Each structure stands twice: as structure tokens, then as C-alpha cells.
Amino acid sequence: MPDSNFIILYVENPSRSVEFYSAILGKAPVENSPTFAVFVLDSGMKFGLWLKQDVEPEIRAPGVSGEIVFTLSDKIDVSRTYSDWKGCGLTIIQEPVAMEFGYTFVALDPDGNRLRAFSPAES
Questions:
Q1: CB 74 within 8 A of CB 92
Q2: What is the DSSP letter of 53?
Q3: How far is Cα 8 from Cα 3, in angstroms, rounded to an integer?
Q4: Cα–Cα distance, 52 to 60 (Å, whole number)
Q5: Distance between terminal CA atoms of the chain?
Q6: What is the mean pLDDT of the chain?
Q7: pLDDT (tens digit, 9 = 90+) per residue, 6-58?
Q8: For position 24, what pLDDT does the model report?
Q9: Which fold has domain 6-54?
Q10: What number is the average pLDDT over the span 105-115?
């Protein structure tokens, strides 16, 4: 199977989502129209935002079924990101906590998509 290098979220308001993700990613999109925007992350992965009403074929599954994960270097970096995101007004649905896989917290974007930041547990 080929590697994935592009993630697209379906959003209600692309311009609002571009503003939101520009702030947390610290960069502007490389493509930005009223219905679609694309960011290129430092890893080379592409991250798109598509107006939900324009997606073809039509979206049939309701609700959120996954999350975007941001892997950070250590617990300090997770805590710093938590403070930054909370300071930007993100809704936090899981406060920073140590879990089996590492130190983590979860926030929501404007469309209710889950954003998890974590640093892997030491082996």
C-alpha cells in the first residue's frame, strides 16, 4: 500500500478554518480559495480543508470519526503546546495526562475535529 501524504478535513467555513489552522500551525496555506485550502507541513505532508457542502461524493456519515495527531518531542513541548492552544481559545476536551502511549491532551477545531498532541512514552 502506498504511504499517505495528504489529509483533508471537511469543514463548515473554510476561511474560519484557515485562520484557525494558520494560527496553530504557524504558517499560511499554499493554496486558498473560498471552498478549499491546502497547507504543506514541515514533514512534507499536505493538509487540506474542504467546504463540507462541496465534497463529492456527498458526505453521508455524521459526526467525527478520528483525530489529527501532532507528535511532539517531550512532555515540556506538550505542556507548551497545551498552553499555546488554550491561550488561542481552543476547546480542550482532555487535559494533559500520562497515558500508556505517552503524555497527551486533546483539543477541538472549529468543526469539532479532534486534535491530539502527545509525546511518546519512553520505552
A1: no
A2: G
A3: 15
A4: 11
A5: 28
A6: 90
A7: 999 989 999 999 999 999 999 999 999 999 999 999 999 999 999 988 888 77
A8: 93
A9: 3.30.720
A10: 90
Cell digits of residue 60: 453521508
Element (H, E) at 20: helix 14-25
Are residues 72 and 119 in contact, defined by beta-carbon separation less than 8 angstroms?
yes
Domain boundaries, the chain: 6-54, 67-120
Percent of the chain with pLDDT over 70: 93
Q: Are 119 and 74 in contact (CB under 8 A)?
A: yes
Instruction: List the CATH code of the domain at 67-120.
Output: 3.10.180.10
Neighbour-count burial of 1, counting CB atoms closer than 10 A to its CB (0-12 exposed, 13-18 middle, 19+ buried): exposed
Most distant CA pair in the chain, distance: 45
Question: What's this model's pTM, rounded to 2 decimal places?
Answer: 0.81
Q: At which residue does the C-alpha cell 517531550 appear?
A: 74
For residue 13, count CB atoms less than 10 angstroms from its CB and return exposed for 0-12, middle for 13-18, buried for 19 or more: middle
